[in-house]
Structures
1.
Amino acid sequence: MTRLCAIKFLVLLFFTASAQGQKLRYKDIYGLLSTKQYDAAAPFLKRYLATGEDNPNAFLFMGMIYQEQAARKDVLKETPALLSSMDSAIYFYNMAAARLDDRELKRNKAYYEAYNRRDLRTGEFGVQLSDIQFDLQKRRESLAARSENVKMVKHYFVVADSLYRRCTLLFHSLKERYPLRQALFLQAGDSTLGTLDGLAARFDSTLRFVGLYRSSMEGLGKSGYEQVFELQELVDYENDGASTSDFLSQRVPLWNYKQFAVASRGVITDEIIPLRDDLVLLDAELNNLGERLKHDSVSLRDTIAMLHDRLPYDRLRNFDGDPFPLRFLELKLAVLSYQDAVVTSAAYADSLDVNLQLALTQTESDELRKLDSLASVVRQADFDRVSRDYAHFISTAYNNETVLKTYINGIGEYAKREGAKLAETLQQRQDAVRWLRLQDEKIPLIPMDSLLPYRPLVTVAERYTIGLKYADSADVSGYFYSVTPSRVPDIKVTFPVDKQHFVSGALPSVRALSTDSNDLIYYILIYSEEKVSEKFPATIAKVYRADGLSWCANYPLDFVPEAVEYNAESGELVVRAQENALVLDKNGKPK
């Protein structure tokens, strides 16, 4: 109903003004003003004042209209318009205050009914000039104070938003330089620390201005903004921290850049920089150890092992799953381990122990194989990444990447040269272990497919070997030789065998068994698994370590022997197979 009346009044006002040559009468506009139809009255009141009318009441209501407009505007989104409306309201209130007097109140008392109050002294209702002036003063003071507060709110808001955006840009600049966490820490330098310090300082300022903004916003009362600012921990460097925040939202999440910056700086200064120094120090110690090996004949294996234990695997693998410096230092340690093995071998060069010589050469071969394998791995490293992640190590220890690559390639070539020489030596050492040397003859310790006269039947590792020697296809004898570390036997015994049945053609069926008594007395049984006249041909020999061959005899057996056993108490020898047995006394006589 009120809206319909207002429309009718506007139509009437429009036609009245038209009928009077567009001249507006204030009393016609006042009808809207008195009912607080400010939006409807505003254009007419502006036209009225534009004619130069010096009407205090019109100025008063114009101030109220602007004050009402200011109250409806958004503090942050419409700040210039809001401040302009408040300035206009103050201006018109000033105009009204300057022109208000008792004469104005007497002439236009009806326009000031809103200020009609009971006089506490007389009890009568009336409009007092002092009441209006006081109200105008309070309005102007309130608007002036609110205007300053709005300016502060907007200032703190803009600064806080700008600082946070700067934080985001700084973080983005870090991500552009170091896309991965590994790169951030391993490649960090003074500029990185400066960026992190700047990020922490700016985020500190951001939080300070956010606090000032929120407290000044609270001073405005109802503003439509009841925001919650939430700090978010930046945990995943690769994925967190990139999103921006809308400071106009009710919920404003903020990445805690200071926490990230302080923690990252701590990692760099407390872990990365000491790690760099340790790597360079370890490299220098390995260089010094290499120089010692060139001049010392004493093994440094324990020192090499100690240095290997000092490699910072756990510390560096927190930042790099396959750290190049550790692979490289392992390669240098492998070079030292190989060279130490060579030094150790040289110290025993005069030893006649072929097993020792083989073991030493095998150790050299094993160490060289590790060296060659590590050299291959290190050469395949991504040197573009390595030169970025480990620039400090490369520049401090090797001056530049080219020198480092040359050094690594040199190790690879060294390993190949050493490998060619060592392969020949290793073959010689392996052959030496497989043969006994008897003056100019070589006696194999394992069966060999060859035309050699010696055919081993039994070899007890590092103790003795038993076999047949063929002077020709029909001339055969047995032998028993001790196996010594030097491969020169100290027991050399040959004995006759059943030549008729142990000729070379029958060799595939010939077998041997043996037993001994504390390496002082040895019994040798050589037999054939092929029957001859329902018997199994066999030759048994007894050998003393001190005196050589004691006796030797042929014994055709009724069974294929499975074991020979010596009874030290009786001095008897038992040849048995399941339930069958042949017992010989100490002189070789059957019992």
2.
Amino acid sequence: MILLFCNIFSFSQTESEENFFNSYLLFKKAEINIYQKNYKQASEQCEQAFEIANYYSTTDLYIATICAALSQDTNKMFSYMEMTLKRGILFSRYEENPAFVSYIDLPQWQELKNNQQNYYLHYEASINKEYKHILDSLDKEDQRVRKKLKGSFWTAVLPKSKMSKKNIKSLQYVDSSAMAIFYKYYDKYGYPYEGNIGKPDISKSPLGYIFLYHHYGNSAFIDKQRQAVLDGKMPLYQYEFKLRYIRLAKNETLSLKTPSTPLDTLLTAFTIHWEFYKDEQSRQLINDVRKAINYLSVEEEQKLRQEYKEDIVYYQFYNPWGWSKLGNKK
């Protein structure tokens, strides 16, 4: 255990890696405090994370707004509210949320409500509509072809695919063509995230643009995605899924090893899918990593989430986009 702790905190890290590691961990600890209804502590941890994060999501900002409301920090709450409205959150989300009932008669509330249309226009002006249209089109075509050829998400990637060689070749051609178009716009506009293409489309998969997962052979692009994670532009769980996708495509055995970078530490602690690591040694490693960064074991966190009725409460109460269901359902 001591050796693991030393390994995690002795590797060299860039400022970007350090900021991402610390801010992500603060957000995770804030989430635990929410489950325990320690809203003031959660609010303070969110604020600390915002100060060092390279970019923080609108969802994190919305959660921080609720925590500020529940801890009666009025000034912080209204400041965060204004920021979220400029990022595309509808004012109706606040009107529907019981955490804000005691604030609706305040003049600051009325001022934000009166200006909600201007805030949304500000948000719409920030969206790169050309880029978003191209990405949506590429994703739609990707799914159209796979449906036509009866190919699943994993088809043409898994070594033991049952598709014909002709259809596999067709899918690979579609994938390479899509990425050729994507690179053209990526070089111009950067990695797609809510800061340049707007809020996530809740009708799509939580994995985002599916076609980006099918291109696994270019290590340079994977490095770009890694940097996108550190910059706060790609969710960590999406990156873990991409790495697992690559390993399956290469027919590699899924196994865990002691993390050697800050990003590996977070991947191991928070995004590893237990169904792929059922052995006791892997489970122990995940919990050892969590202990080394002063976080709850998986079993402790699961118990806490169940006590909070996370499936019913957390994702309905704390998501900004109006999802009724999100995450794993029991």
3.
Amino acid sequence: MPNNVYVATRAHWRRVARQLRARGNVSRVSLLAGSHFNLTDLAPRQFRKSCAYLAAVGQLFADANFTVRYRIGQPPDDDARFMSRVGVLAPSGGAFARMVAAAVKPLGVHVIRTEVPDGRWEARLEEETD
């Protein structure tokens, strides 16, 4: 898997939504986001693209009839604990998400494969033309 790609296309998240729907027992989606920066000390404009991306991904899941929750700016240990208690995890391409996915899989969490079929990550949500 490529190194630390955090942004996937709309098509990628639609595939994740289809996989979740196919399980038949998933109705809620929690989107987790963190930063290496203190989110409260920086002006919101510095995270404008990140917020727009999260909103677009959240809207995609809402349009697929999932209840969407956001978990943003929590301590990494708390996020890892949260992810260890979910039924299904669709990790992003970052190192932290990959590490958590590897840790929670033996605990019975179903980890959705988030690579595209050719093994490369799709680059950006806004580049999708479907």
4.
Amino acid sequence: MSHPWPEGVRFGDEGLTFRGRTARDLVARYGTPLVLVDETVVRERCRSIAEAFGRALWAVKAFPAGALIRIAHEEGLGLLAATGGEVDACLRAGVPASRVVLHGNNKTDAELRLAVGAGVGLLILDNEEEVGRVADVGRAHGVRQPVLVRVVPGLEVDTHEAVATGVVDTKFGVPMPLALRVLRLALEAPELDLRGIHLHLGSQLLDASPYEAAIDVALDLLVEARRELGWTAETLDLGGGMGVAYTDERALDLRGLAATVRSRVVDGAAARGLEPPEVVVEPGRAVTAPAALTLYTVGAIKEVPGVRTYVAVDGGMSDNLRPALYGSRYTMALASRRSDAEARPATVVGRHCESGDILARDVPLPSDLRRDDLLAVAGTGAYEYAMSSNYNKVGRPAVVLATETTDRAILRREDAGDLARLELPTAPRPAAPRPAGVEVRPARVRDARSLARMVESVAAEGRFIRTEGPITVRETRRRLRVGWSPDHAELVAVADGAVVGHLGIGRTPHAGTRHVASLGMAVAAPWRGRGVGSALLGAAFDWARWAGVEKLSLEVYPHNTVAMALYRKFGFVEEGRLRAHSKKRGTYEDEIVMGAWV
């Protein structure tokens, strides 16, 4: 039986350790749910696959993180992209386009233009229609695009039907009876350089026999192609699907598979009078699945007498859809401590509002499991994060890459700001009446002392504005001397002679962005929720219209959800995030950029 835990995992008196770090310590730094990836294992598996097969493409869809894409490239693998988005991810990761291959059963025109224009090394034609479409794009770019034709071998394999792709009835590829026709069309298109054929059998295959059968089918097709078309293929792409251990499976021996494939191709080609084509493989999960685990925090534990024990964790189908989608199984273990209690079956469920949100049924866990314990799930390095979602407005987990000496987050945890970043205004900008007893007006120099005290009180909270330390009256007075002009405005809300709110706004200094003004606002704690912020924002829009400003911009901390809700009412939308942009009390904080058209 293969071991489902990454190589760097140990279990001892402190529970699970990952490359020498305890689960508790890692969770204290990064929170849960948390995906831990063993960088050493990823690199070793990339090198081993490259050495065994010669030419291999890592299927980016397994875990499309830029750091992992770069590692695969550095360790000698090409990259297989299923969409334009994955091509873009490879390019952003610094991979030369020539090392990227694009496949997919329904490529858009924009994806074809991106791939051909960038110069991808291969483009895999999935159907007859794509021959003409790719030729048109090649003509427009003045290039001859190298291509493969994906054919369907029509083979049944022992895997879940949802991930079987080489059967006759599939959405992928050219059916075998039509293969020669599509190959002929590709050969006749001067904009295409037909290099060979591609096929794929399915995922999580645990023995070599399907590959052997597929090689025979492919070589028979190449014999026909030579006879009918006078064409000899130089490349045979056998796809991926190499299975790994999740529970009690025996992972496919990749070096053994490589030797079997090489022998079958060389011997089969010789028996058919063919030159053996170069073999390409496309491992996905085989690279990253065995290198990762996920940590969860235990929440509610529910006993149904005589039926089962439910253990709820702080993740679920939003970060790992595979159990609900495919019935996938995983190995789980208590990670935060050692337990000598008797194991009993438990069903581990997520936090989502779905009865099907089940991560594992009847897995053995210690009978003394309790709230706030940590659970570890092995083998989560492929198709878990890649298929994650924000169902129930839950953010995706953080992903940490570790070696013996370092650990670093390569994907940060999504927060409330991320979950709202695509929201657009749907209602008219609200009227902004002045609250009773409050005057909103341009600031005057004599407001300086009161304004400094108000800003200092907000700064002392340490949560809402960048400012820290004492606020001098002299500096405040200097700012207020130019309190109203077409380039700058200082607005205050005053109640009973005291400043209770402030908004500063000014044009950006560059000629290309003179149509934009940036603002910052603070409201004294006792006056929040009473309309002061709305009144100041309304006045800011009035100034912008007077000054000819077309757009307003601001930055806000992700945790300041009340302020963000107010800004959205006035038409502000998220436009980006400034990573660790503020340093407050020794701690770095992100800022969210929001903008609104006047």
